[in-house]
Write the structure tokens for this entry.
Amino acid sequence: MPKLPHFLTYLFLQTFCVLSIHAQKVSLFIKQAENYSVQTEKDSAAYLQSKPQIPYRYANESGGDCAFDGFGVLGKPSFLCTCNNLDAAKTLNTDKLWLGGGLGLNLSGNGMNKLGVWDGGAARITHREFGSRITIMDGATVSSHTTAVAGNMMAAGIHANARGMSYQTQLKNWNFTNDNAEIIVAGPSLFLSNHSYATTTAWHFISGSWYWYGDSSIHQFKDWSYGYYDNRSRIWDSMMYFNPYYLMVKAAGNDRGNGVAPGTTHYYWNGTAWALTNTTRDTVGPYDCISTFGTAKNLLCVGAVQVMPLGFGGPSSVSMLSFSSWGPTDDGRIKPDLVAASGSILSAGTAHDSDYAFLGGTSMSAPNVAGSLLLMQEYFFQLKGRYMRNATLKGLAIHTANRCKALPGPDYECGWGIPDMRRAALCLSDSFKNTVIEQQLLPNDSFSVDVYATAGDSLRITLCWTDPKGITAAPIYNDTTRKLVNDLDVRVYNLAGNTIGLPFILNPSNPSAPATVGDNFRDNVEQILMPTMPAGRYRIKVKHKGTLQNNIAQSFSLLISGSPLYTPVLPVKWLSLKGTQQNWNEVRLDWVLAAEINNKAFVVEFSTDGQHFSEVGKVTDVAGNSLHTTQYAFVHTQLRGFSGTVFYRIKQVDFDGTISYSNTIDVSTHSDWQVLSVYPNPFNSQVQVNMLLPQQSNNVVRVYSMMGELRYEQNLQASGAYELNIPLQHLSSGMYLLEVQEQSAEQRKYIQKIVKN
């Protein structure tokens, strides 16, 4: 680990460059982590020397890797265990971001050396899927679980079905036994890290015996650690707060439904040693079964649903896996944040360098999300030349997720839903009806932005912020003390100042109840959904409840989809308008716009004196809403042609009736070649064409059937006023096209429909 002063300087440069009080807090934070690392080493040595009943490392009943993690409450040995799962890119539409994925993005993670993993060991770095792209950061031994996790994030896809989400990125790999100290050092250099492990809780089958990891002095029948905000939660939240571009992704765990038959003999910790008992204890869940650091506020906690090889097909296509742990946290926050697919999915194996294995469990849903979100950072940099803050990245994943249930809003089973990387990419690329804002709130301050909705528009708003670390209380069962430190709020108002949009909320006292709306005072993610909006202007406001910790500004991310931002300018921004006479009786108008807001149509107006205008046509095939350059054209035709200077202007009509005008332009025209009249029409045997021709004008007169067959042709050379009689008695009754074309460089042409009786 680097010396403390150097590391503090580095960490300070990675943060907001804030007040000295931050630096003081960071120094305390680092010191705690150093103490934690020393204590872990002491505990490990003591445990190994004690000839323990439970091995220092062991494989649990589901094939997970478990390792000693220090002494917990009353000196009971604590362990971290991997959670087995692998995911499929198609479930999250991550494959749509790849080469040939349909979006034309060709994202692969190439050059994005910002991904880390802490797990139960080391990946098999010689595996053909990894090449030389994994760096082992400590002395961990090869683990099948870690290899599968790494493969899920970044396998090259030599075996096509085993391709990782960021299949050309690099990965840094740590063993989880000293994770906190290592995370503190590595966090400033990472965008994402995956953590598919959890504290030992409730029921574990070890070396032929059942162990119950609850504490009967806290609760005799239930494990108190589910939903509990522990020391590791606090440290991880602080790490993400002080490193605003670093997001940790955590597996929710596989504990739901764990239990044994009533009266089963098992070991429990009696305060000093493991003792046998046959006390009947509760089966885990269905709610409140995400343990300890899975409840951290700022990370993404990911549960598991059944893999969807054909992609998301609506809420009815989602099947929650029976083992995936559900929330809420003890203080009622929404966990898991998201869910991703699991089941029996292929990834890299450890038997040899071309081995593959099938795994399942929530451990694999988390790396699928972590690897996919790295591509979002890659894409955002391509679009903006910078990277997203961790709150923006987390908010984007939640904002664009597909919901698991028919009713809108989050739940304690799958959080905000299933990430959709295709929707996330489109949200970033379409900057007209999708807006991503990174801002901060000062004490006694608020932030607001207006949007303009077209009738029927939907409006989705997601507010996300990286909150300061909460307080870790002494272990009790269901500590409902709020862990949210800076309570931000988002609301939607109409122009009268009335609140018309509130965020979703859940009721932890009734965890199966659907979401309602109200004041969310628990979560550092808030979302408002308004499915149909009357046309008009609305205000989105972010504020806080009066206090911010230590009066330090709180950064936040705001994502808005469905309606464009309102700007107090004309509904269209004109770049140019020009007119050109392209025929003796035609003037073409071309105009270019830089932007359109709520645009319904253009009305073309014409004048011979520049004062009195009349409508001569409309253009209704318009973009409507666009922040990109758009081009339009209209051809104005007059049967008698044009003479002298004429004038045009374009009237733009908004959906709400608002109009705006372009500048007026003048067009110089000439009329030395005109077809004055065609008579009679309909005709019986001949048609008389009256023309005004320049000196020695060469022309061709043709008559075509409506099928394009030439039925009459005559060359004509004449000057001045000229009357031409065209004999057409040989034609049968019907409709024809008369064409008179000047044979000159200008190629002026007149076309008229004629009808023979």
